[in-house]
Each structure stands twice: as structure tokens, then as C-alpha cells.
Design a protein that fits this description.
The structure is a homodimer. With about 375 residues, chain A is an alpha/beta fold. Chain A is about 30% helix and about 30% strand. Chain A is globular, with a radius of gyration of 22 Å.
Chain lengths: ~375, ~375
Amino acid sequence: MAYTGLQLRSLITPEGKLKLSLEEVETPDPGPDEVIVRIDAAPINPSDLALLFGPADMRTAEPGGTPERPVVTADVPEKLLGMVAGRTGESMAVGNEGAGVVVQAGSSDAAQALLGKLVAVAGGEMFSQYRCVNVFMAMPMGDEVSAREAASSFVNPMTALGMVETMRDENFNALVHTAAASNLGQMLNRICLADGIDLVNIVRKEEQATLLREIGAAHVVNSSSDSFAGDLTDAIHNTGAYLAFDATGGGRLVNTILTCMEQSATRGMAYNRYGSDTLKKAYVYGRLDLSPMELTAAYGFAFSVSGWLLTPFLQRIGLERMATLQQRIAREIKTTFASHYSDEVSLAEALSPAAMLAYGQRQTGQKYLINPHG
Amino acid sequence: MAYTGLQLRSLITPEGKLKLSLEEVETPDPGPDEVIVRIDAAPINPSDLALLFGPADMRTAEPGGTPERPVVTADVPEKLLGMVAGRTGESMAVGNEGAGVVVQAGSSDAAQALLGKLVAVAGGEMFSQYRCVNVFMAMPMGDEVSAREAASSFVNPMTALGMVETMRDENFNALVHTAAASNLGQMLNRICLADGIDLVNIVRKEEQATLLREIGAAHVVNSSSDSFAGDLTDAIHNTGAYLAFDATGGGRLVNTILTCMEQSATRGMAYNRYGSDTLKKAYVYGRLDLSPMELTAAYGFAFSVSGWLLTPFLQRIGLERMATLQQRIAREIKTTFASHYSDEVSLAEALSPAAMLAYGQRQTGQKYLINPHG
């Protein structure tokens, strides 16, 4: 038997329209190493938004269709159409991760062993009622874990662990993190507390600082405070955090971090015309701020600003190290790697005007969990 | 006997004045492994200017003293004084490299072997009539080489070779270079021609493009041209040059290079929401443009912008590889590594109003060679 179910689709037309809709699709018969997962929970992550919306201006979003089969249309500015020439005209399924029960399994022992089990899955197209995946992409979860708890077992947990692993691989000893009160930031705090790593948290609001201190964060600085630069320099000097992971990717925040690193590194040191020898490094892993990033000459030449993405990191560490990280995530999904959602929605509700408004304004406090069968 | 001679000095006072002057200094008796070099030629490199001027505003430079012992004073803006707190009040000798004859030698065989020989030297304080250096920093040159020809045997040649070595170490196959018509850029062209490496030269003026084509450059693009972005993308696509060395360090040039690299990498490829997987890398090794560097989100996350300096590179490659590079430089100093100067000046003339004007405006076409005994 084949399962048929709804799937969220994103299409950009050659005329410059974004069209979001729900399409009915039939899952294939699973191959020997494949399983069919009934997706019961899938988070909408910031990393899903680029594929979901492309460069469309979501302020122009208009609802359409029926309550059960909503359709959203929005305008893609003409000058940005070139950026997405590679996907234009192709209806694309969305959703980086999710969790659910294996309802059908291929003939291999590995696949059969998962039948009836709750698995966390990754690999795209998860905003679907059913999804056929290779057993390699399905991580079995403990019996006492719910689909809701297992939904975000991959993107945020692996990213947070990836930051710590990258720090270790590159011989840094402590970290700076921006947008630090996010789900990801909270996870990173719990990992660093457990592993004895100093973490400097940068937030924009005092209530975010309070939230992080309540979960045990020792170093929290508020970028809205008048004393931000001094506070950050002190925190870097106290921790030796010369590696930053930045979610904003625009404006002056990375520049301020590198400048404070340099101020910390040169405290009490002799003059060096080329800046300090201490390597000051920032990885950009998100683009919450779409304005250009500005880098000044305030920290010499021992600096590096690079992009960081999860997939190349996982390719670099290889399968064995990745499996070790996955096992930790499965073991600690209710504690270290627990996620929080502001709303639980059906596939249709994910395309509601309220949801469009929240995404379009990139309200980072807003975090949706889709229940495709809700 | 001890040699006494003039030495160019740079002093920043606590009151915020830069003072340039010539001081009489006596060389010490050389230790066993040291030699006294009579400096006959020393270039003023862009990399000397930071120590020479600090953050002083050279538009405020005023001549003083006597024709034989000129003194230049200039204002250091108060808000920039903190940057140079580590050197304030200390009279500093200047000059990264030079060449001359060994007039006195320590007792070791290595030192004695250099007596009467022309050597190229590095290690600072070269704008001096005499300089005591360790034999390790003195590279003997062939008999048919003049001090003038040997004066720039270190900074530019090692930097140009360092770019090529870095390219090889990081598994890139071709290079992009900005400010490509400089002495350094011409050297890099000759190295790349000799070694069969594709080099994309970025210049600002058509006469610079002509100059480079005349010495054999195959890929030259003009950043002042309307077709710059398209020309650069074509050149990168034709050469596979995904590593750039940039001398400007400010404005939008690095951003344009990374954007054109991305355009080249994605030609004919399927859509990837995070940008291409091709690593696009830029090393900043100079600051000809002091405005902030702007990086946009036009090339995904597989990018890196880092500072690059000669000294850490040399530390990384170690003594043996460095010696191999030095031997090549000594062998090819009249050809591959030949330098050109616009003016030859005495120590006193190096502090003339005309020279100050040229430096202060960072006239990159202006390149002085000092003859300290001239």
C-alpha cells in the first residue's frame, strides 16, 4: 500500500510570483533501506525560510484558496529574480527536520527494526504528512519521548554541538554567541555548562539576559546597553573567547566583537603596528540582519570572518563523529536539547495570514511547530 | 672600532605630536654571529608607513630643523592617540629592509664569511647608515648585483611568493590580485608566468592594464570599467581563481570579488538556497582604502575574509621552506624580483615636504629608495 498525504510547496513563477500551497502527494514504496515516516511534528526553523519564501517581499503576501487548501501569493522583486533562477518554475517541498512514527519499512533488517518506532528525521521535505527516508536519516528515539519533543533533534542541536566541536578543532577555548537567547542559544548554554566551556552571550534585551542567567549563563552582555563595548571586552578578557558564532551577518555587530577581542588581546601589551598576534575569528551562520556587514581596520590583520553552515561541518567531521553527536542528542533530547515553541499549527494554519506576518517580520520570538495531521 | 651614523626616527609624544627626525647613533661591537652592514639602499614600502607616521594626519605636516637635520612635526588626532599608547614617548627606528656591504663581522665563521660582501637585510631599523644584524637576517647576493638592485629582496618578493605558497597550501589553483600594477603585483605576475599559475589582475586605470599586459599578464580587468563585474566573473570562470589577495581592505572591492566568484561558481548550476559549495576566499594584506569594508549576503556561506601578513606566514612555513624561497629571490633578483623606484633620496630628503606630501596622499605610484649615505 502507498500513503497519500499533503505536502507544503513553494513555487516561484517566471513572472515573479511566490506561490505557497498544499499539494497531495503519494509516497513511493520504500526501497530495502528506506522507511515511510508519518510526520507528527516539524518545526519551522529560520533556516527553512530561505527556501520557503525565496527573496519574496512577504509584506505583499495575499491569502487565497480554501481554509483546508490555502494558497498564499507574494511578489518577488524583479531585480532579485536572478538570484533564484535555478529554482524558478519548480514546485519545491520544504522542511529541514521533523519526527514521527515509522508506518512502513523496506526489506532490510535496519529498516524493519524501525517499524512502529518514533524517529527523528532530517533531509528536507518534512512539512509533509508522510515522508520516505533512508534509515540513515532516521534516528530512533527513546520510548518515553514524544514526537513534539523529538521534532527539533537535528538542526539546532547539531548546530550548537557543531559550534563547540569547531571551537575544539580550531584550538579555541571559549565562545562568543550572538542572538544568544534563541532556542539554539539556550541549547548552547546548556552544552557549555555541561562541558565546562566559557560562553559569552550577546543579547539585545534585558529580559533575554534574565532568561539566560536563569538557566545558568555566567557571561551575558546586552548590545543595547551604553556599556556594551566595555562589558563585552571584559567578558572576552575574563574568558579568552576569541571565536564568535554570529547569527546576524549584517551591520556592525561582528565588527564590534572583533574590536573588543582586539582590545582584550592588547590589554597591557606592547605596541604592535599590525595589531595583536591573537587570532580573532567570527563565523557567520545566519542573516537576521540583511544590511551589509561592515568591517573596519580596528583589529589589525589577525582576523577572520567566514560563513559557517551545518552540512559542510558534518561532511568534515565524518560519519563516526556525527553518530556520536546524534547519540548524545537522543539521550538528552528532554534536557540539553529541549526546544520551545510559541505556537502549534496544522499545515493549513502554517499558511495563515498570522503566520505569514510573523515570518515576514522575522519575529524571532515566534517559533512554529507544524503538526501535519493536526 | 664602532661605526657612528644617522638613523631616521619616529616619535609620538603624549601631547599628540608626531616628530620625525635624524639621530646620530653608534653601532655596537658585533657579537660572534652578528655583522655591521653599511646600508646603501633601503626602500620605503607601504608597510613602513604605519610605523613611520602612526595615525598622524600628514596634511598637518610642518617642516623644521636644518637641511642636513630636518625635523617634521604633524598632529595626531586625539581620538586616535589610544591606538598608539604602546609606543607613545618612544623614539622608534624605521625601515623593514635594505641592502649594503658588511663592513665589520663577529668572530664566527658565518659572520667572517660575509665580510666585504653585499647582503640584503631585513628586521627593521634599516633607514640607518649602519645596522648591526644577525647573520641569519643577512642574505648574501651575487657579485654582479648592486645594493640598489638588492634593496627590496625581502618584503615584496616574500609577500608575492607567500601568496603563491598559500594558494598551493590551501589547494586553490589560481589567484585574484588587487592593486595589481604595483611593484608587488608585477612580481606576482612574473612568478605566476614562470610557474604556470593563472592570475587575475585587478587594476583601476587603463594604463596599468597596458603595463601588465606588456609584461605578459593574460587576465587583466579594470575596476573603473562599466563592464568590470562581468569581466571579472568571466576571468574567474576561465581560470578557477577562488582565492583573492587584496591590498585595499576597505570599501566594496572584496565584496565584488566574492560576488563574481559566486556568479562564476553557480554558472549553469542548480539552485542552492545557501549559495554555492565552492569556497570563496579573500585575504586582506593591505589597507589602501581606510573606509570600512562592506560585505553583503550575495555569496552564501562558503566564504572567508581574513587578514594576511608576511611574518605569521613565514612562521608557519618554517626555516627550511623560507630558505628555499630566499635562494630563489637571490637567484632571480634582477629579473623576477626586480623593483622600480620613482625617486632616489638621502635620509634628509626622505623627510622633505615633497616626500611628506607623496606619503600623506598615499600616492602609490610614488616609490622612494633611500640611500642613507647619499
